[in-house]
Amino acid sequence: MTGFIETSYNSLVTYDREFRGTGGCLSRRAGVRKAIMSERRMDFAALCKRLGKSAPYIRTLQVRLTLPIPDDGRYSESYEKFMRGLVSLRTLSVPFEEIGALLALEKKLLQLLNIDTLEPSHTWFLDGYRSPFASDSCLLITGYDLSGLIHSGGVQSQLDFSGRKAELFSGSEMGEDARRVYDLWLERVQAIRARVRTEVPILRYSLLWANHSVH
Q1: Complete DSSP assignment for the chain
Q2: pTM of the predicted model, to two decimals?
Q3: Has residue 71 got a pLDDT over 50?
Q4: Where do the domains of the chain lie?
């Protein structure tokens, strides 16, 4: 993700030529909806089984991080992948407080770019989730790919599909806010990476110990 950090530190902007204008935004919106509709759904027990964790463990994650719980109790594959990342962070001893703070910053950044209006939903920030390993431009927790928003210019938000009233600040002020939030996000990501680096040797030893001790 080093390349992403170096490039996007300059600024975040709207989609480049492929996604400029209404057509591009509508294409991205249709893509999100298509991804959601095509996903298989699972109940809570199946979600826990696929994550390899107990129901109390997963429910604690949901409650401590105030994550949305589907009204029908059916979870998407995107939700599962999103939760898998959270389980990994907790396995690496990243505190709930740090995970929650980073998630809040990612959601705030996406809201400033109007990503939350592409597909109105309680789970808008994880619908169409991509692994953060899929691209250097993916956010760490939500997995949202910002590659189309990176350029050397200023910051401009997505078209707002929600019909909500115009904000009380200009586009340039919104860009400054997005940059400020991104800088805070970057600081927290670097802190989490530093913590993870200290945990990796311990985890490796634990796995070695398990291979020799558990038969």
Answers
A1: -HHHHHHHTT-B-S--GGG-HHHHHHHHHHHHHHHHHHS-EE-HHHHHHHHT--HHHHHHHHHHTT----TTS-EEHHHHHHHHHHHHHHHTT--HHHHHHHHHHHHHHHHHTTGGGSS-STTTTTTT---TTS-TTB-TTT--B-GGGB-SS---PPP--S-PPPPSS-HHHHHHHHHHHHHHHHHHHHHHHHHHHHHHHHHHHHHHHHHHH--
A2: 0.72
A3: yes
A4: 2-158+168-213
